[in-house]
Every structure is written in C-alpha cells, then in structure tokens.
Design a protein that fits this description.
With about 240 residues, this protein is mainly beta. Helices cover about 10% and strands about 35% of the residues. It has a single domain, classed as sav2460 like domains (Lipoxygenase-1), CATH 2.60.60. The chain is built from 4 helices and 13 strands. It has a 7-stranded mixed β-sheet with strand order 1-11-10-3-8-7-6, with no helix packed on it. Strands 2-13-12-9-4-5 form a 6-stranded antiparallel β-sheet.
Length: about 240
C-alpha cells in the first residue's frame, strides 16, 4: 500500500488550467488528480459523457504526407468530405460504472439490463438514462461523495452497445463536475477503430482520499474483458436493452 501511495503521489501532476480556471484536464502525462486536494470530495459528483461524429476524418486520412509531396497544390484545394451519419455508421455509446464498495459488494451500473443504480443507497451511483442518439446532453452518472467512506473504487467506462465499432469516428469527452472545485475533463481522442469498450477513468478511495486517474484503455470486447483487465470478478451474461 505504501508503494502504491508513493506511485500515485508521483503521478499527481494535473493542475488547474490557468486559461480556464475551473478545469483540470487529465492526459497521459498528467493522469491523476485528488478530489480532496481540489476541495471536491463531497456532495454529488456528476459525470457526463458527450460525443459527436468527427466531420473531417475521411479528408484527414485521404491527404497524407505522400499525397502532399506528390501534389503540393492539394494543400490549397478544398477537400472532398464524404457524408457521415446514420446512413454510413450507427453508433450507440453507453456510459457505465463498475463499483466495489468498502464492504466487498460489487456490481455494475449501466443501461444494458436496466441497472440504473441508486444515489441514496448502495451503490451510491445512479445513471440518469440512456441517450441512444448522441444528443448534446449525452449521458450522466451521479455519484454520492458524501458516502465516499463506503466506496472503495469505481471504474467508469464507455462501450458501443450496437452498430459499428467506431471509436475513431467519434469525438468523445468525459467530464466530471464536482459539487465544488474545478471540473475534470478526459478526452476520448485516441484511435481505436475496432474497439468496442473503453475504460475511461478510475476513482479510488486510498485511505480516505479520493483519487481520479485517467485510464483511456480500449478493448475489443465488452464488460467482461474490462472486468478481467481490472480484476473485478463479476459474472457476466448476454444482455439486451429494452426497445424504445
């Protein structure tokens, strides 16, 4: 435990963005922030997933370095951007959370199977609903940090329930809004064209201190593969969403 705390302390380099004083951005180089140090370890933590389709992917891919060297004039010609949308790709991103409480109980909060949780009683995590169309409001988890002593760890992840595996075609952002202090942002901007799930952030209670660590680890499977990756030990079965 002491070695783990030392390791986490070394990682804790994320600072409040001076150009946006109410934001902390977690990256590969600055992956960790303490909610306690930010004065944000109480009240309700709102975790929002929002995404949109990238509008210039095809153009960016079609005009590589070799193309520019072969035809320098292409830099000054408008790029043809192919239409994107439901006719080309259908993506349903879901926000979810595996939880482990201090008493050893474990489970998942997710739209699949209608496991929406409860903010006022275990697991103290609740999902607002299921956005199947990538609306501007996205999907939101609520976490009761007043019960932080009863929470051991929370793995917040995103998965593609239906449609084409296309994390590389979406511009996703996970934002944590504490009751006080700066918001915490994690961009899902890495290319993983065949992945169906992504572990985004891990919230751990280390001796009473809530640490938020950026993960952004893509896997080609679903919840069970993330479970194995993080050693959760849940039993999984195939599930379906209720029809709209």
């Amino acid at each position: 435990m002491r070695d783990m705390q030392h390791y986490l302390r070394r990682l804790r380099t994320a600072q409040v963005d001076s150009s946006a004083p109410y934001r902390v951005t977690l990256t590969r180089r600055t992956p960790l922030v303490s909610l306690d140090e930010q004065g944000a370890a109480s009240g309700t933590l709102r975790v929002n997933l929002a995404w949109s389709m990238r509008s210039t992917d095809f153009g960016q891919r079609s005009r590589g370095l070799k193309d520019v060297l072969r035809d320098p004039g292409s830099l000054f010609r408008p790029e043809i951007v192919h239409a994107q949308g439901p006719a080309v790709v259908n993506i349903d991103l879901d926000l979810a959370c595996m939880y482990e409480l201090a008493d050893g109980s474990k489970g998942v909060v997710q739209p699949l199977g209608d496991f929406f949780g409860d903010i006022n009683q275990p697991p103290y995590v609740e999902l607002s609903g299921d956005d199947r169309f990538g609306g501007s409001s996205g999907e939101t988890l609520y976490i009761n940090l007043d019960k932080k002593d009863e929470i051991k760890r929370l793995l917040i992840f995103v998965y593609i329930y239906d449609g084409t595996p296309a994390f590389d075609r979406t511009q996703g952002k996970l934002t944590l809004y504490p009751n006080s202090g700066p918001r915490v942002e994690i961009d899902l901007d890495e290319r993983a064209p065949q992945a169906r799930s992504c572990a985004v952030v891990l919230i751990e209670n280390i001796k009473g201190e809530l640490l938020v660590r950026r993960e952004v680890k893509y896997v080609y499977g679903f919840q069970s593969e993330l479970d194995r990756l993080y050693g959760w030990g849940l039993q999984w079965a195939r599930g379906y969403k209720s029809k709209i």
